[in-house]
Model the fold of this input.
Amino acid sequence: TYPVSFGNSYWTKSGATIEGDPSTAGSELITNGDMELDSDWADYNSVLLNERSNEQAHSGTYSRKVTVNGSSQGIQGDVYTSVSGVMYYASVWVYTTAPQQVRIVIREGDDTGWDADNLFTTDGSGWENLKFYHQQVVGGAQSYILLHSGSTTSGTYYYDDISVKPVTGYSAPH
Done:
C-alpha cells in the first residue's frame, strides 16, 4: 500500500508519472489562452516577434505567432493564483513546420523559482498538443506559464488554446 500523498518517494521514482483525473478539472487559470484578444502575452527574453495572427488557428480565428532568433525566447502569460499541493493539468497547442523545441515552465506562486519545467520537441507536422500534470510546490499570486524555444535558435511557432486547470489526482494503488 502506498500513500496518496504525491510527496511520497514511491511517486518520484525514475519513469513514474503522476496524473490527475481530467473530468475533475476546475476553473481556467490562463487569461486569453484562446488568443482571440491581442493581449495578456508578454515577450520573453527579447523574442523577435510576438503577435496575434490569423495565419494559423487551432480553434477560433487567431493564434499567437512567435518568431525566435535566439535560444530560450518566447512568451509569458499573465500571473494567476496557484495553491501549494494542488495538482494542475497544463495543455498547449503549438503549430510548427519543422521539428523544434518547446519548453513549457510554470512559475512558483511566490515568484522565486520554477515549479514545473517540461521540454518537448515538435515533429513539425502542424498542430500538436503538448500537455502535462504537475503538483504545485509553492503556491501564491505570482504563478504564470512561460513558453520558450529551449535550445532552438530560429523558427516560428503558433500557440493556441493554452490551458492550466486544477485537477484531482487519482488515488494511489493498494
About this structure: Residues 52 and 68 are 15 Å apart (CA to CA). The longest strand covers residues 155-169. Confidence is low (pLDDT under 50) at residues 1-16.
